[in-house]
Amino acid sequence: MNARLRCFTSLLAVACALGAALGSPAARAVSGIAQYGAPKYAAGFTHFDYVNPDAPKGGTLTLANFGSSFDKFNPMTLRGIAAPHVGDLMFETLITNSNDEPNSAYGLLADDIRLAPDGLSVDFHLNPVARFSNGDRVTPADVRYSFEMLLSKQANPAFRVALAEVKGAEVVDASTVRFTFSKPRADLPYVVGELPVFSPKWGQRPDGSHIAFDKLAFEPPIASGPYLIDRFEPGRDISYKRDPNYWGAHLPTRRGMYNFDRIVFKLYGDDVARLEAFKAGEFDAIAENRARSWVRSYTGERFERGDIIKQAFPNHNGANIQGFYMNLRRPLFQDRRVREALNLAFDFEWADRMMFYRLYDRTESFFMNTDFQAKGMPSAAELKLLEPWRGELDASAFGPMIVQPKTTPPDSLRENLRKARALLAQAGWTYRDGALRNAAGQPFRFEMLDSGAALLEQVSSVYARNLQKLGITLVFRKTDAALYQQRLDSFDFDMTTLVMPAVQVPGSEQIERWGSKAADTPGSDNMIGIKSPAIDALADAVASAHTQGDLLAATHALDRALTSGWYIVPHWYSPNYLVAYRRELARPATLPLYYAPDGWIISTWWRGTPDAGARAASH
């Protein structure tokens, strides 16, 4: 599965997801903020419910990272591939979310948060004991420096898009930094609160000169996180060691977390090699994304003896938006009828029956598995947002929510392809001389770019056979991870498989994903290249919502607009996380609601006695 693994772009998405509305913020200081009502954890809480506050510290956790190499420790620049999980383990933020609420944040580097009554600024008071890895105190000037560097041309342009409504950061006093906003958009305090903070001394040479931020490669980051880089070999592995002087170990938002003395990531170039290495004992845990492998390959003596535990954990997260993404910058995909026809040629039911062992569900929405998914007919509030754009949006956006094409009786692939052929003919594509051609005689031919996941290559080959029945030629182009990322960043593809990370509460990341400005920003998340005033307005309505009702109406309307555009061929999602792990690993009895398996294991598990994992699995 080929996700766009860009650590801090995802971090921004998480930040935006934490809050699309703050209601009417009072001019008071708090240690935590919630989107609606009060945070779950009151002032004075000692730890999150989903951790073991007394988890033992020690040992080594070894995990696998899919990818053949990395060439930098800086995850905030566009070029290159950052070391696995360097952002999670080494960089901290002013606030952090809890994983059993969709919409609350608590202090991390900041111990106090003050929201202005007019919504145009937020003050963060820094914890006086917060320290960088070099021992320096984290100051408001450091926060301002980090913000300004992320806004500069040396950082990933996605930051500038996400921070477009942030006017600036200023040092109020020796302990307080203030962010000001151009408009009182409700999620902005969360966006700035989740920005990574790092020292201006990172990249400083002995003579006082600096390495340019976008040229930082293997210079160890000077940040405030719980781990330091121990050793690394770019084509093979990287090892992090816990900082013995980590300042935040006893914070309520860190207690019971990051329990391993060392965390090692081994690099594997393909899924088969990674699975065989796991079964041979080369690393401790694996989250499996391939149903066939889960059913047929996670077997053998070690599983039967209980040395390896195989378990499905419930997935309450919003579903990732995985699918075949079309690039509208290519003239071939600019006609909505063509895009709908390409959707009709995809047979999910066949793939689910023949390849997925019925472990997956079809993705039907851009907000799947959440309350923000549009269903049925639009409400009056949704229509109020949609009506100004009736001339731009397809009529289907104003009726029953679109259901993805199906091939279960009475539907069939044959009938779907007939519908597709009719749509293509309306768009000027007809079959002649052995291929589907336009009026100029050019054949309908495009490339599917991928970085080599075997399952998706199989799915693409079946999809290609269906398209061939229409006279369309799909060429599967496999490339290495570095070139793949480079081509994505420069939008140099026809169609590709992408996984857009899910959000629990949508916010301004929707502007980054679908907005017109982002479409022209290299490295942005608007991979499709959508430039639609209607979608711009609806995404802004999501980011600007101030009540839960407003947010639901805006997300439902945006969902209808995006779905009616047929911009992607949506794939599937798993209602469960499929995880296998060695029985020496232990986990808290209480599961978080919103998590990703690797991050959950890294942050809250620990190494125990040989049957610790088995005991935890029985809870």
Mind telling me the C-alpha Rg?
24 Å
Helix-residue proportion: 25-40%
**CATH C-level category of the largest domain:** Alpha Beta
Shape: globular
Q: Say what the CATH topology of the largest domain is.
A: D-Maltodextrin-Binding Protein, domain 2
Mean pLDDT: 90
Per CATH, the superfamily of the largest domain is Periplasmic binding protein-like II
Roughly what fraction of the amino acids lie in strands?
Answer: 15-25%
Summarize the topology:
Blueprint: H1 7-17, E1 29-30, E2 32-34, E3 60-66, H2 86-90, E4 95-97, E5 104-107, E6 110-115, E7 121-126, H3 140-151, H4 157-162, E8 166-173, E9 176-181, H5 188-193, E10 227-233, E11 237-242, E12 262-268, H6 271-279, E13 285-288, H7 291-296, H8 301-305, E14 308-314, E15 321-326, H9 336-344, H10 348-354, E16 361-362, H11 380-386, H12 413-426, E17 430-432, E18 435-437, E19 445-450, H13 454-468, E20 473-478, H14 481-489, E21 495-500, H15 509-514, H16 516-519, H17 533-544, H18 548-564, E22 568-570, E23 572-573, E24 576-582, E25 585-586, H19 597-604, E26 606-607, H20 612-617
Parallel strand pairs: 3-12, 19-20, 19-21
Antiparallel strand pairs: 1-6, 2-5, 4-5, 6-7, 7-9, 8-9, 10-11, 11-12, 13-24, 14-24, 15-21, 15-22, 16-23, 17-18, 25-26
Helix pairs in contact: 9-12, 11-18, 17-18
